[in-house]
UniProtKB/TrEMBL annotation:
Domain Obg: 8-293
InterPro entries linked: G_OBG, GTP-bd, GTP-bd_Obg/CgtA, GTP1_OBG_dom, GTP1_OBG_dom_sf, OBG_GTPase, P-loop_NTPase
UniProt lineage: Eukaryota, Viridiplantae, Streptophyta, Embryophyta, Tracheophyta
GO annotations of cellular component type: mitochondrion
Chain spans, region Disordered: 189-209
Family the entry assigns: Belongs to the TRAFAC class OBG-HflX-like GTPase superfamily. OBG GTPase family.
GO molecular function: GTP binding; GTPase activity; magnesium ion binding
Protein name, entry field: GTP-binding protein Obg/CgtA
Biased composition (Acidic residues): 196-209
Residue intervals passing through the bilayer: none
Length: 481
């Protein structure tokens, strides 16, 4: 029995600017009493700023809920009676399993922690400060530009770059889908004059000009956490300042008061004031990308019927049009069997030249790269009755070529073939010919519109995903003569 869940459009890539909270300022205060007429230092340290943390979660499906700018809270200021400022709240952002991080700017995501509620010792002077106090000379940048280390346990995936050219191989000029459709699709506006394609292209252009460190970290386990921007350290209150100077046998003076009977020079007092200011939280710019978007990728030329098929498989209602490229971003459907749950992605139609980034080819191919198995969706009716299209076996050849041009081995994944639009007049004969020309993989005749052949296809997909069927398709398996 199948349980079918609703389909939705997914966001699989997002740029994120993260900023840790600034540290709170330390307090300069003196408690005076009858016995302590000169006053005793009692100013507390500022609280540490919060971190921005990414947490891997099963409950998150894609990156659509992620904001572009995420700031953690600043730490509270220290107060008299040696009260420490509150620690700024961390900002924990849930991301899906398989989120890969690319670093555009800032510190390496460094710390993997299970919980953000680590008890903070308010009396502790941060290492960096301790060193500065006893070391050479304090500089504010020491706080704000603290360089993190990559966690050794962090899994570094080997994903190929998403913007790089995969191949320089030329392909023949494309004549299957007319240029008018292509340009109308590219110009299609999806609201406020900005098309999704424009938005994606802008992002890719922007990225090409940047120096990006790809795949610096990956979130694979639910509950796994990575700090992407650190909170600044709190400034020192005069209690901590006087203790530190005492320890280091420095003689200092604030110009007006004697602290613990230690004489302090006036010029040194100015240095002290900078130590009381909390440091800025670190900032980073990242690109988050989903490594794996689905178990099954529906791959086909525009108009082959992929969206309709996804709807038939998952009772979803993706956008379906009578023109090419109805789908600009992958739609996802979930197909749950008794013992297995399978995600199916309707990947935007590929065209000849996609590997050269024609028609947003790279973006589309990147989606395919992140599916486990492939279902080639062919349009049996494309070449019928003098239509402009090419026969299904040639569609198959073109699809395999595009995958191979983009990334050698991409077409080597387990696959099956969906022969769609079997209901059209003359399609049965084309299907018979397809069967005689294509060997090695299962071929399912389907009418996605009427949902005919869909149960058998579901069984085929199940076998593919569970590994019972591991057949893949190469050009050698297609008889093109
Ligand atoms: N006769 C017939 N038409 C179909 C069938 N499946 C889909 N269509 C039609 O084919 C056209 C394209 O369908 P889509 O599902 O949008 O195709 P697509 O492959 O997702 O297209 P892109 O998103 O542009 O890549 C629509 O007009 C569908 O109604 C089918 O089984 N039989």
């Amino acid at each position: 029995m199948y349980f079918l869940l609703k389909e939705r459009t997914m966001v699989d890539r997002r740029r994120l600017c993260a900023k840790g909270g600034d540290g709170g300022n330390g307090c300069i205060s003196f408690h005076k009493s009858r016995h302590e007429r000169r006053g005793k230092a009692d100013g507390g340290n500022g609280g540490k700023g919060g971190d921005v943390i990414l947490e891997c979660s099963r409950t998150i499906w894609d990156l659509s809920s992620l904001q572009h700018h995420i700031n953690a809270k600043r730490g509270g200021h220290g107060t008299s009676k040696n009260k420490i400022g509150t620690r700024g709240d961390d900002k924990v952002v849930l991301v899906p399993i398989g989120t890969v991080l690319h670093l555009v700017e800032g510190d390496m995501p460094s710390v993997v922690r299970k919980s953000s509620s680590e008890p903070l010792n308010p009396w502790e002077i941060p290492d960096t400060l301790e060193n500065d106090l006893h070391g050479s000379f304090y500089k504010e940048s020491t706080f704000s530009k603290k360089k993190g280390n990559v966690n050794k346990d962090m899994k570094i995936p080997k994903l190929s770059s998403s913007t790089g050219n995969k191949s320089t191989v030329d392909s023949e000029s494309f004549d299957f889908y007319d240029e008018e459709k292509m340009s109308s699709w590219e110009a299609r506006v999806t609201g406020n004059g900005v098309s999704e394609s424009d938005e994606m292209e802008d992002t890719e252009d922007e990225e090409e000009e940047e120096h990006i460190e790809y795949n610096v970290a990956e979130l694979t386990e639910p509950g796994q956490r990575i700090v992407v921007a650190h909170g600044g350290e709190g400034g020192l209150g005069n209690v901590s300042l006087s203790k530190s100077y005492k320890n280091s046998n420095h003689k200092k003076h604030d110009g007006l008061e004697k602290v613990d009977n230690i004489e302090l020079e006036e010029d040194e007092a100015e240095d002290n004031s900078s130590l009381t200011i909390g440091s800025s939280g670190s900032e980073s710019v990242l690109i988050l990308e989903l490594k794996s978007i689905a178990d099954v990728g529906l791959v086909g030329m525009p108009n082959a019927g992929k969206s309709t098929l996804l709807g038939a498989l998952s009772k979803a209602q993706p956008r379906i049009g009578h023109y090419a490229f109805t789908t600009l971003r992958p739609n996802l459907g979930k197909l749950t069997y008794d013992d297995l749950s399978v995600t199916v992605a309707d990947i935007p139609g590929l065209i000849k030249g996609a590997h050269e980034n024609r028609g947003l080819g790279h973006a589309f191919l990147r989606h395919i790269e992140r599916t486990r198995v492939l279902a080639y969706v062919l349009d049996l009716a494309a070449a019928l009755d003098g239509r402009k299209g090419v026969p299904p076996w040639e569609q198959l050849r073109d699809l395999i070529l595009e995958l191979e041009f983009y990334d050698e081995g991409l077409s080597g994944r387990p696959a099956l073939v969906v022969a769609n639009k079997i209901d059209e007049a003359g399609a049965e004969e084309v299907y018979d010919e397809l069967r005689s020309r294509v060997r090695g993989v299962n071929i399912f005749p389907v009418c996605a519109v009427l949902e005919e052949g869909v149960p058998e296809l579901k069984d085929g997909l199940r076998m593919l995903v569970s590994g019972e069927d591991s057949n893949s398709l190469t050009l050698d398996d297609i008889d093109l003569d």
